[in-house]
């Protein structure tokens, strides 16, 4: 990751050098609160510079002189996050190995990154200006600004064709602009921009191609950046070889490595990670989605980390959610609160209203088994293991989900769906045998913790015979219906089962 960040930093520096880096029109105030020996970054507030807040240079703060009440300072936004790190790492207590905490929530972290990128690319202070008052010329040619036919006056005109041998700067473009290295447009582009290295413009309606990247305040159309795109607001489609860094997206984002934005509407695709404050739509990431709030769906190869999920969250391995309103699927799910919906995982932990139950069961299909159930009472997931001693001496493993509903003071209804798989004791010559049971459990409660459950069930069983051998004998209860396929290579059957057990929660 360090080489990637280094390349991105070099590119941002290039844009800063080639463009005119303006003083940003917004700054971030961070509020620091001293609580005993701990510094907490409490909150950030975005303000307009017009408020004339005093700007002071950041400096290392000696905790020995740090007042135990709230203080403010306003660092340059481009080094906002860096200053937070300096504040954390430079305190004298580090040497004493006393544990410190620093809290910087995702929204503030993303805002700092976006603002820093915008500042370094020189787009923060630009305002959209009308171009109707500008005189239009058919074309202009420049070598390096201001070495052009009209010299430094090119910033006062609009051109239908703008050609920059190395780099150039014009007022506006209505048509096409080509630059072997760098194109800079002070106001608006309506058409197409091609930059060998980069394009920097106030706003564009059309298409931008940047060999390394593009920087703009407002985009309506399509952006292609070999390395990255840095935009305030985009409506359309964005392609970044490594990254897209935006304030607001209404459309589709494709980032080779990462998409970073505050507000995303519609769809985000990232090779590694999507980071957003609020996504209204869908997120797809090869590794992770990290968001404050998602309203829609998110899919990640490994993990989703969100403060609020309203919709669907699918993490290949792990989901971590604050508040869930919808559905969450993963191998491991950790949720603070489920306001509505379902969290489904092999390991399913819900901090508020957590339900867990152990059961010891005896059934015709699993002669002895132990199960652990976790989640919330209205929907939990379960893992189970046991043995079948009918004839073949089999191990039995299963996963499933269920619900426990209170009927009255003494009885609960406990329906469950469980998928079982059967293996020989020595795990040799395995006949691929699985069965799905729909169980209708009724629990008699001795007290709030202990009960006994009786659960009749119906099942559907599938057997794939190895070399057309003999099927396992699973139960003494004969199946109600059985059908073989491909000369008894596959056998499907339906029947009923029975189980009793003890439950402890």
* Apparent shape: elongated
Number of domains: 3
Our Rg estimate from Cα atoms comes to: 31 Å
**How many extended strands?**
26
Largest sheet: number of strands, sense, barrel closure: 13 strands, parallel
Strand content: over 45%
**Count the helices. How many?**
3
Structural class: mainly beta
Q: Distance N terminus to C terminus?
A: 46 Å
Low-pLDDT segments: 1-104
Question: How does this structure look, described?
Answer:
- The protein is mainly beta and 505 residues long.
- It has 3 domains: 22-104, no CATH class; 135-347, no CATH class; 355-504, Porin.
- It is 9% helix and 61% strand.
- The protein contains 3 helices and 26 strands.
- A hairpin with a 7-residue loop joins strand 22 and strand 23 (432-445).
- Helix 1 crosses helix 3.
- The longest helix has 17 residues, at 2-18.
- The protein is elongated, with a radius of gyration of 31 Å.
- Residues 1-104 have low confidence and may be disordered.
């Amino acid at each position: 990751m360090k080489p990637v960040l280094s390349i991105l930093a070099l590119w941002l520096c290039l844009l800063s050098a080639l463009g005119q880096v303006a003083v940003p029109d917004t700054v971030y105030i961070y509020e620091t609160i001293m609580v005993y020996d701990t510094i907490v970054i409490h909150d950030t507030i975005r303000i307009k510079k017009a408020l004339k807040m005093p700007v002071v240079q950041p400096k290392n703060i000696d905790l020995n002189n740090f007042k135990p009440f709230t203080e403010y300072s306003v660092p340059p936004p481009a080094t906002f996050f860096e200053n937070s790190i300096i504040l954390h790492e430079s305190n004298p207590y580090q040497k004493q190995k006393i544990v410190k905490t620093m809290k910087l929530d995702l929204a503030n972290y993303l805002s700092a990154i976006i603002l820093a990128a915008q500042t370094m690319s020189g787009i923060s202070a630009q305002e959209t200006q009308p171009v109707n008052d500008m005189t239009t010329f058919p074309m202009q040619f420049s070598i390096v600004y201001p070495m052009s036919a009209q010299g430094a006056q090119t910033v006062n005109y609009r051109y239908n064709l703008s050609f920059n041998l190395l780099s150039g700067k014009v007022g506006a473009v209505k048509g096409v602009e080509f630059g072997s290295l760098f194109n800079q447009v002070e106001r608006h582009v309506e058409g197409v921009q091609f930059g060998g290295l980069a394009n920097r413009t106030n706003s564009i309606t059309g298409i931008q191609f940047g060999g390394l990247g593009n920087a703009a305040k407002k985009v309506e159309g399509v952006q292609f950046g070999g390395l990255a795109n840095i935009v305030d607001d985009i409506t359309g489609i964005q392609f970044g070889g490594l990254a897209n860094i935006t304030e607001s997206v209404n459309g589709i984002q494709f980032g080779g490595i990462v998409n970073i934005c505050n507000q995303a509407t519609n769809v985000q695709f990232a090779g590694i990670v999507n980071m957003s404050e609020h996504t209204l739509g869908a997120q797809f990431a090869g590794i992770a989605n990290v968001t404050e709030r998602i309203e829609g769906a998110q899919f990640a190869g490994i993990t989703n980390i969100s403060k609020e999920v309203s919709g669907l969250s699918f993490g290949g391995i792990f989901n971590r959610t604050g508040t869930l309103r919808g559905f969450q699927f993963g191998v491991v799910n950790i949720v603070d609160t489920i306001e509505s919906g379902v969290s489904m995982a092999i390991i399913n932990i819900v901090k508020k209203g957590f339900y867990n139950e152990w059961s010891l069961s005896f059934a015709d299909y699993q002669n002895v088994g132990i199960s652990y159930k976790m989640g919330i009472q209205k929907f939990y997931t379960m893992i189970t293991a046991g043995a079948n001693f009918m004839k073949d001496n089999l191990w039995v493993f299963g996963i499933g989900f269920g619900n426990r509903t209170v009927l009255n003071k003494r009885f609960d209804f406990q329906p469950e769906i469980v998928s079982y798989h059967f293996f020989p004791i020595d795990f040799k010559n395995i006949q691929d045998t699985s069965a799905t049971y729909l169980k209708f459990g009724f629990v008699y409660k001795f007290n709030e913790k202990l009960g006994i459950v009786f659960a009749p069930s119906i099942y559907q069983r599938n057997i794939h015979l190895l070399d057309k051998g003999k099927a396992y004998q699973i139960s003494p209860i004969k199946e109600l219906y059985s059908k073989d396929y491909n000369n008894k290579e596959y056998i499907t059957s339906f029947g009923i089962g029975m189980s009793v057990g003890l439950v402890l929660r």
